[in-house]
Amino acid sequence: MITPARERGAALLTVLLLVAVIAVLAATALEKLRLSTRLASNMIAIEQARGYAMAAETLATTRIDSLLSRNPAQVTLAGGWSGRPFQLPVPGGVASATVVDGGNCFNLNGLAVNGGPGVLVARPAAIVQFTRLMTLLGIPGQTASTIAASTADWIDTDSNPLPNGAEDERYGNRRVSYRTGNTLISDISELRAIAEVTPQIYAKLRPWVCAQPRAEPSQINVNTLLPEQAALFAMLLPDTLTIDQARALLLERPAQGYTSTDAFWKLPALRGIIVFPEGQAQTAVTTKWFALRIEVELGGSELTESALIDASVQPARLVSRAWGDPA
Predict the structure, then answer these.
(1) Which of 275, 104, 110 is nearest to 184 (CA)?
(2) What is 107-211's CATH number, 3.50.50.60, 1.10.240.10, 1.10.40.60, 2.40.10.270?
(3) What tens digit of pLDDT does each residue of 274-300 get?
(4) What is the bridge-based pairing of β-strands 86-88 and 301-310?
(5) Residue 277 host element (H or E)
(6) What's the rounded Cα separation, in Å, for the pair 34 and 31?
(7) What is the pLDDT, as a whole number, of residue 201?
């Protein structure tokens, strides 16, 4: 028989157990509430940051229009606009935007040429040029040749692999199979899926390539190309100009830049250098593309945006944007 004292003890233990369970449930609910509140606050901050980033886009395109209005036929580094962050007033946070010449790169989509409505055909001269750029960057010749041809195969609309190239059959035999894009590359991160491109090679190529939304080679502006980008000029020529020679040429550039490509190609330092017409046609003294990077810090949240601006039309217009750091 259970005595009243033992009954009271059992009841007390039951009550204490219930209190403990309720306390745990309450603590869990409170933690979930705090998490939900933080998530909601972060989402609000991110949305506000996106709004400020878009305002920065507008300001950047306005500045680009102002730059081009001075002389659309010649863009130089005068004024220090390239690579210099400009601050934006943001309540409770910090925002900055940086503009650089977005055309001084190897356009992966230039590996193809429009062959008619919906048809993209590999461009042999661009394949040679991309191969040369990679060898200048220290990538072995055979690997570079395979990557260049395979990238052209990735873009062109046929299913016949180029010499050293790769089409659907090669990717279909992988453990995780996939097919080639058969269209223009939308983001340079697609390179990681192409034959022979390792993480190390991708990291080496990423600063030098771009994906302009047109099947045409990049126009390299000899007025804005930096000495550390000398490989982009050396790639335009056959094996007659080293990176060091190209760098020296850029270091001797006059402060006011060159008024025409003819004036540039007549430089004494370029006498005796073999120049292919395709390479010469890829030089310019103005800029059609600008790359924009925006960073916003607001309410403990950070937002990064990369954008491409088309300045071949006026007013300049944004053609692509990506949130977060480049892959």
Answers:
(1) 110
(2) 1.10.40.60
(3) 888 888 999 999 999 999 999 999 878
(4) unpaired
(5) helix 277-281
(6) 5
(7) 98
